[in-house]
Every structure is written in structure tokens, then in C-alpha cells.
């Protein structure tokens, strides 16, 4: 299995411990005080080692067997017994008569295939590929044990744990799966963590259809930010609602996983609630950006956002504006029902445009945001719109700012949900060397616009690589062929 990209953010109490490991090429076995063979049907707290392909096949059959009693996250997309039988046969080569239908894996060590949502054919292909990878690779072993006893295994140096399985199939939230030819995209709907991966060595540099779309619904904004690259003002107009809904239909038909609503100030659109409802009903993750808090006085908007929006990007220009983060979070989380059984609350992210403050002030701002228990997203400065006439601060200080932030990061990392720092694609493109020098791995960065995402402007009816692109394509009525024709060329 090969990882191509990881994006964090939108990123147990049992006693079994099963580790799926890859041993080094020069090692033939793992030493330990446990039986090499295991003839049970429930893989729980026992110490066992599975390295034979048939033994691993039975273990994977037990993993898949969980689907037999699971309705998944959406009952109408549950698994029928005959589907599970066929999936076990296709994944492990074991016929239904060769396995115990009550076989299982302790829930802490379960690969929670039941949390996957998406096309059932895509999910089946993914499970088959994972099973084949584990069963047929002689270097992969499965070690059983528990947390209540000292480990009986002596692992060779350079042994690797396949932690990706727990990242892909987190048991506390539904995970959307999308297949793009020989590549897969996994996105946890609870925390926004997204992983691109494959089962071959080919590089995944361009999606056939966009994963994420930036959807502009209005050019109206009452706040007058002097560096607004969209040139949004009180004279700006709203996008026609029917045009917006038509665009959403097109995006849904292409398998778009996530839509970020923007503007202008999107909360000012008179049909803001209807638009959110429509996206959410399609099963697409919906987020939006905002500057103001006036919309909190509209209880209908608050209720809708609380129930159906996953993440809110809040523009923060200076330290005084940090307080609005808590104001928004408190208002929506009082009503939030998003995965509330798992303790999930809507994510509020502070967004700040670099260059609008001196860089030492930006570093101070990020740390203050972390102290207030919010994640931060730094946005590149766009020299379009009003940004052409605003003189940004000297950009040469970016490397010192990043070093200051990273050096102090451990002070705030007690909560990984709030000490996160993200950057947009423009920053990656502009300051790649600085990020690389600060040990930010390539796997966390997507360096080019238009490769996995795109921009749809429903006000001026145009599409582009991004909301600040130098070229757009106009449309009268948007359709799939129009979008894919241009997206494929970017």
C-alpha cells in the first residue's frame, strides 16, 4: 500500500492489541513466547502469531465478518449475508463453508469496515485489495496480544507497523470512500482527515474528478476588508439559487466529496439555509467561510449550521477578532447534533491571510489562537481584486515566522485538534522550500491548484483552478461535460 497525501482536519478502552507488521527483508520470523498457530475463531486477548497465508486469510475473514451483523452508518446501505459471503470469498479465497460464521475480532483491534460509506463496489474493491496485501505478502505478519500483560514479542529492528489501517478506518465516525481508477481517497466525516493511497507504485498527481470544490454563492459583503481578493462589497450581488442548486447537482454526479461555500459573505445569501440543506442531503460534506457574527442572531441559520455543517472557517485579521471564534463555537455547539453520540462538535478554524500583518505579529496571533483552543489556517496573499492595491508586509519574513511557530508548537500540542496549523495551496507553491526546510513532509502538501480541487463561481457563472486563478471559463448552464473537459486540462 502506498500513501500519496494526508490532510489532517477538515483531521479505546478495551484490552486487545493486534499489530499488523512488516518485517525487514533480512528477517524470516519474529521471536516470542506464544504459539505460532491459532485455531480459534475469535481473535481477542490471546497472544498469537499469524504468518501463513491461510492463517492470515482466516483472520481477515473474521475482520470482514463484522459486516454480517452491521447495518453500517446508513441502514439502507447495510450488508446482506450473501454479500458478506461473496466478499469473504473474493478477499480471502475462503468459501462460506470453510469459515465459522460467528468468527470475530475484538473491537479494539477491529478494522472497522462497517464505517465505510460510498459506492459499495468501491468499498468491496478496497477490502479485497487490503486483504490481498496482507494475505499474500510474506513479510506481513499479524501479532496478537493484550494491554494487560507485558508483550511476548521481540520485534526486529526496522519492523514497521501498518498504522494506515487505523487511520483509514477509524471506529468513531463514518469514513467516505471514493475510488479514482487505481487510487483511493478516504475521508473521515467526523474530523475531516483525508488520505490518498493506492496498491501500486504509480504516482497520484491528478484526480479524474475533483474531490473538493470551492463554491462561490455571493459577491455581497458588508465588512469591507481592504485586501479582499474577491472585491466583494455591499453592492455585490447574490448568485441565483437555482443556478447554485444546478451546480451542486453536477458536482454530486461527479462524486465530489466536500464543498466549501464562500463569497462575499455567504451567510448573507437569502437562501443560505436552503443551499446547505441541499448539499447535506446529497451526502456531501459542507463547510463555509465567514467574517462576521451577525448571522448568529438568526436562529434558523444557527440551527441549520449546527446540524449540517462540518467546519466553519472564520477570518481573523488581528488578536481582537479571536473572541468571535468562541462566540460562533458556543452558539452552534449548543445546538450541534453532528455525530453527537461520539462527542463531535462543529469545527471552527481561524483563517488568517499572511502579509496583512508583520510576520512576528502573525506568529503571535497563531499562538494566541492556539491558546484559545482553536486550530489555525494560514492563507497565501492574493494579488488580485482589492489585493492589487493593498501593500502587503514584507514576505521575506515567512521563514522566520514558521520557525517561531514550529519551535513553540509543543507548548500547545496537548490537544491535537486545537494546535493544528494548516496552510493553503498558494503557500505551499510559494514557500515550498521553507516548509521543506522546517521538516514538513511532502505527503502533507498538495502543491498545485486544479489537480484535486476546483472553483465554481455561481455569481459570474464561471469555473477555474482556484478562486484567484488568472483564467476562467464562462458557462450559461453548467454540466458535467463542461466541467470535466476543463478540469482534465488543468
Describe the protein's architecture and organization.
With 490 residues, the protein is an alpha/beta fold. The protein has two domains: 2-198, no CATH class; 212-487, Alpha-Beta Barrel (TIM Barrel). The protein contains 14 helices and 23 strands. The chain has helices at residues 53-65, 81-92, 120-136, 164-168, 241-253, 272-281, 299-308, 323-333, 359-371, 398-407, 409-412, 425-430, 432-437, 480-487; strands spanning 2-7, 19-22, 31-32, 42-43, 49-50, 104-105, 116-117, 140-143, 153-154, 160-161, 175-180, 183-188, 194-198, 212-216, 258-262, 285-290, 311-315, 347-353, 376-379, 421-423, 453-457, 462-464, 473-474. α6 links the parallel β15 (258-262) and β16 (285-290). The longest helix has 17 residues, at 120-136.
| CA gyration radius, whole angstroms | 24 Å
The whole-number mean of residue pLDDT values reads 84
Distance between the termini: 27 Å
Strand order of the largest sheet: 20-19-18-17-16-15-14-21-22-23
CATH superfamily of the largest domain: Aldolase class I
Question: CATH first level of the largest domain: which class?
Answer: Alpha Beta
Q: Approximately what portion of the residues adopt beta-strand conformation? A: 15-25%
Major β-sheet annotation: 10 strands, mixed
- As for the CATH topology of the largest domain, it is TIM Barrel
Shape: globular
Enumerate how many helices there are, as a single number: 14
- Please name the CATH architecture of the largest domain: Alpha-Beta Barrel
Indicate how many domains the architecture comprises: 2
Quaternary organization: single chain
Helices and strands: which structural class?
alpha/beta
Q: List unreliable stretches of 5+ residues.
A: 10-14, 336-344
What share of residues is helical? 25-40%
Count of individual beta strands? 23
Amino acid at each position: 500500500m502506498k500513501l500519496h497525501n494526508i490532510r489532517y482536519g477538515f483531521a479505546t478502552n478495551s484490552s486487545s492489541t493486534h499489530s499488523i507488521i512488516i518485517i525487514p527483508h533480512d528477517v524470516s520470523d519474529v521471536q516470542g513466547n506464544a504459539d505460532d498457530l491459532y485455531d480459534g475463531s475469535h481473535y481477542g486477548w490471546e497472544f498469537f502469531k499469524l504468518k501463513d497465508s491461510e492463517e492470515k486469510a482466516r483472520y481477515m475473514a473474521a475482520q470482514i465478518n463484522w459486516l454480517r451483523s452491521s447495518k453500517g452508518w446508513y441502514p439502507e446501505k447495510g450488508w446482506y449475508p450473501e454479500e458478506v459471503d461473496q466478499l469473504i470469498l473474493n478477499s480471502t479465497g475462503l468459501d462460506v463453508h470453510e469459515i465459522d460464521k460467528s468468527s470475530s475480532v475484538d473491537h479494539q483491534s477491529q478494522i472497522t469496515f462497517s464505517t465505510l460509506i460510498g459506492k459499495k463496489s468501491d468499498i468491496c474493491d478496497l477490502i479485497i485489495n487490503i486483504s490481498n496485501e496482507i494475505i499474500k505478502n510474506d513479510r506481513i505478519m499479524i501479532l496478537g496480544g493484550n494491554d494487560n500483560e507485558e508483550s511476548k514479542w521481540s520485534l526486529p529492528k526496522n519492523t514497521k507497523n501498518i498504522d494506515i489501517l487505523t487511520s483509514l478506518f477509524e471506529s468513531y465516525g463514518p469514513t467516505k470512500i471514493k475510488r479514482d481508477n487505481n487510487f483511493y481517497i478516504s475521508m473521515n466525516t467526523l474530523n475531516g482527515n483525508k488520505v490518498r493511497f493506492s496498491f501500486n507504485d504509480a504516482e497520484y498527481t491528478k484526480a479524474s474528478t475533483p474531490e473538493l470544490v470551492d463554491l462561490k454563492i455571493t459577491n455581497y459583503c458588508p465588512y469591507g476588508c481592504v485586501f479582499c481578493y474577491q472585491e466583494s462589497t455591499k453592492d455585490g450581488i447574490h448568485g441565483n439559487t437555482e443556478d447554485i442548486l444546478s451546480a451542486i447537482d453536477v458536482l454530486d454526479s461527479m462524486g465530489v466529496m466536500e464543498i466549501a461555500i464562500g463569497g462575499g459573505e455567504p451567510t448573507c445569501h437569502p437562501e443560505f439555509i436552503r443551499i446547505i440543506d441541499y448539499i447535506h442531503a446529497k451526502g456531501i460534506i459542507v463547510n463555509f467561510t465567514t467574517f462576521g457574527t451577525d448571522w448568529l442572531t438568526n436562529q434558523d441559520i444557527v440551527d441549520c449550521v449546527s446540524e449540517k455543517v462540518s467546519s466553519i472557517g472564520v477570518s481573523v485579521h488581528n488578536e481582537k477578532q479571536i473572541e468571535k471564534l468562541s462566540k460562533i463555537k458556543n452558539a452552534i455547539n449548543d445546538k450541534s447534533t453532528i455525530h453527537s453520540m461520539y462527542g463531535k462538535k462543529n469545527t471552527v478554524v481561524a483563517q488568517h491571510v499572511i502579509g496583512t500583518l508583520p510576520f512576528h505579529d502573525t506568529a503571535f496571533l497563531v499562538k494566541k489562537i492556539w491558546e484559545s483552543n482553536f486550530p489555525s489556517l494560514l492563507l497565501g496573499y492574493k494579488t488580485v481584486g482589492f489585493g492589487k492595491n493593498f501593500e502587503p508586509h514584507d514576505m521575506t519574513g515567512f521563514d522566520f515566522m514558521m520557525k517561531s511557530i514550529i519551535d513553540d508548537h509543543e507548548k500547545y500540542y496537548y490537544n491535537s485538534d486545537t494546535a493544528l496549523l494548516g496552510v493553503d495551496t498558494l503557500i505551499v507553491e510559494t514557500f515550498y522550500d521553507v516548509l521543506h526546510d522546517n521538516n514538513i513532509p511532502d505527503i502533507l502538501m498538495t502543491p498545485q491548484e486544479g489537480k484535486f480541487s476546483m472553483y465554481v463561481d455561481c455569481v459570474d457563472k464561471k469555473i477555474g483552478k482556484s478562486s484567484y486563478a488568472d483564467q476562467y471559463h464562462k458557462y450559461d448552464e453548467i454540466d458535467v461535460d463542461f466541467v470535466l473537459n476543463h478540469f482534465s486540462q488543468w
